[in-house]
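Data deposition worksheet. Section B asks for the primary sequence of the deposited chain exactly as it was used as input, without tags or linkers unless they were present during the calculation. Section C holds the resulting structure in token form. Section D is free text for depositor observations; keep each observation to a single sentence. Incomplete worksheets are returned to the depositor.
Section A, Depositor: J.P.
Section B:
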Amino acid sequence: MAEPKWLKDMNKDEYMKEDFEATGKSVAGTTIEGIDKNDPEWLDKAAKKVNAAEGNDYVKLDSGLLTVNQINWMLRNTIGELTFVDDNNQFLWYNRPQDPNYKMKAGRKPEQVGDTMKAIHPDVRDVIPNAKKVVHALRTKEAGHDDVYMPVPTGNLKELVLHYYKRVEDDNGNYAGIYEWVQDLYPLVKYFCETTGQKLVVDEDATTGATYRRNSDPDAATSASTKAAEEKKEEAPKPDTTTGASQH
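Section C:
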């Protein structure tokens, strides 16, 4: 993943102290004790221990009243993949896809819920150190940042998978965890262009994106139209284009 300079410059000795085995407790006091965090049946066992609301039980939120079922339905149909990890580095939730055959871009399984961050990250290459860096950066609001953008090169100029990490705070501004949003941004950009009558072109003078383009295949079936040479041959959108004319 590409990472911003402020994240690259972080002190490794500091962020490697992140406890990915989740041996502590959540500051909010929400850690459920007495159950192995990496137990594949953690969700059912933990829910039973705390008598968790479920089904048609109502949940009063700060700006709404929904049943657990309604919350589940809404989150399952939310655009993108969402996960939540608490301040004790325990993976507590993800929005399970409605379609059981859907292949997640950041794969998660029901039996992983409750796992420690160490358990859900493969111990290969720099995966765990990089994950610790992101967590520690958001825990400490490194250089004033409360979110991290991590685009993942896919080798396709018409696909940009973004991993967006956002610091979650309680009502007093204390660190409460991180939610991650994963989404291929291209369908959104494509819709924007189609709606406004605009188009994407390669800026050959840009100082950013060169590495991404170089590592991508401009002749792929899904990305040929993004080549700068082809874009230059196309005429600029006319003022009377049928979509988004008023945007020009």
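Section D:
The chain has two domains: 5-184, 188-237.
Residues 33 and 95 are 24 Å apart (CA to CA).
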